Amino acid sequence: MARDLSAYLQDILDACIAIEDVMVDVTLDNYLRQRFIRSSVEREFIIIGEALRRISALDEPLFLSISNSRAIIDFRNLLAHDYGAVDDDSVFGLVHSDLILLKAEVGVLLRDLFGAN
Q1: Deepest of 27, 52, 59, 90, by most Cβ within 10 A of its Cβ?
Q2: First and final C-alpha spacing in the chain
Q3: CA-CA distance, 43 to 38, in Å (whole number)?
Q4: What is the per-residue pLDDT for 13?
Q5: What is the DSSP annotation of 49-70?
């Protein structure tokens, strides 16, 4: 059965929350030294990017309404296909900047378009 837009948006929101949960009290030094943390964060970013890719195929205006949507898909592709080029300092920075905006935007979309809490 095909999934709908609200399911993909919920996947994004859930992945944002998972990243926030794993990053509680994690310093850059902890992040760089602990592979399991980096792996968890990167996996969730891959989910976010794939969900956005699928949203882009279903509803381009919705996709374009999400800040940095194309860059997020490109980042997912980097993580999945060119993992050696991943800059861990940059990923750590994304968690503390862009993720906050993405979570807020997706939460608003879920509420306004689909009546989700």
Answers
A1: 52
A2: 24
A3: 8
A4: 98
A5: HHHHHHHHHH-HHHHHTSTTHH
Instruction: Map residue 42 onto helix, strand or coil.
Output: helix
Structure-token pair, residue 22: 């794993």
What amino acid is encoded at 101 in this protein?
Answer: L
Residues in the chain: 117
* Cα gap 99→113, rounded to integer Å: 21
In 3D space, the residue among 75, 77, 67 whose CA is nearest the CA of residue 106 turns out to be 67
pLDDT, tens digit only, all 117 positions of the chain: 678 999 999 999 999 999 999 999 999 999 999 999 999 999 999 999 999 999 999 999 999 999 999 999 999 999 999 999 999 999 999 999 999 999 999 999 999 999 976
- Greatest Cα pair distance, the chain, in angstroms, is 43
CA dist., res. 74 & res. 69, Å (int): 9
